[in-house]
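Pasting two entries for a bug report.
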Amino acid sequence: MVKVVDHPLIQVKLNIMRDERTKSKEFRENLDEIASLMCFEVFRDLKVHEEKETITTPTGAVLPKLKLDYKIILAPILRAGIGMVDGVRNMIPTARIGHIGMYRDEETMIPHEYYFKLPVVDNPLVVICDPMLATGGSACAAISAVKQRGYKNIRLMCLVGVQEGIDAVTKAHPDVDIYIAAVDEKLNEKCYILPGLGDAGDRIFGTK
């Protein structure tokens, strides 16, 4: 499944992020807010269960305490994926965090894994985070790396992508749902998304 989360609030915030005049602080703030808003769709189908523990409302009513059925692991692809973590954790403070290090060979465009660490949790939902879905190479490699470690319930959460990248992921991993805020026009000769956001990592961390 591919779900485009094109809520009007997301569209406006994404437009701010696209502006080349937007500084790192404002870029990060809008990324946080979009990631939080996307959570309503990414986790819409999760179930909750009633625990033995109860809560008491201010009016004296006693209700069972509710808890998500799944333990959530956020797995940002380094480094830009880190920029989406806080926005999701604002909605799910109990989510555990892993990291997937990928770098892309500038000549071959082939991704290479250099770091991988996820929390050890029984039957979790793993949400791989990466703002950009361009060729789909890094996303496919990250999903493969997660599967190779035995994780099965996986979703991909992105900000901006192109159809080429979406098709690459759905072909390689048809069992992985993709959630994305915008599908842009195309890739340029350097495999940057157009109109895109520029280099998301540089803009998040102010390295350019």
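Entry 2 (this is the one that rendered wrong in the viewer):
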Amino acid sequence: MIGLLDGVVFDVSSDQIILTVNGVGYDILASAQTLTDIQVLIGQPLKVWIYSHVREDAFQLFGFLTKPEKEFFMQLLKVNGVGPKMALSIMSGARVSQIQDWIENSDAKALSSLPKVGKKTAEQIILSLQGKLVRIEAKLKAPKISETHRQISSALVNLGFKNQNVDQFVATLGMTVTIEEGVREGLKRLSNQF
């Protein structure tokens, strides 16, 4: 099975990305949150954690930017009645850390506000996963960034771009980039998302 793909973002659509790896384009289904994060990275290198789903009539790849997101997706699959597409839909409704908070706090009402989740499914998710989650915040460590990267990030945020888009962009910059080069490239790339 495919566990990770390391390639270049070729295209991003409403429900999937195409990642080219050694000349082959892979269709990867992803959550709305992930697609938003990747939108600014077209033409950029990217590593995507993969869950491979094989059925008689289909072979589908589901992609995640971090290993904890993939692990949460796989935990959702253990819930009775939740398949891969539904799990992805759930993860599209809110940030993973928020969904995990709702599960731990037995907030069935908040969970049932997620796409394709009714009251019974929300209760089933809580029953199956409460107390068993590997919390996403515990696994994620902020990447070390240089003072130059920090200043580029600050400048782009001050120009009105969203923090998460700026963070994704700054993570793609080389260590030798100057502040001027980074801001100029950021303006060019981040302006294309509007």
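Dev reply: Rendering is fixed now. As a check, the viewer should reflect this: The first helix runs from residue 32 to 38.
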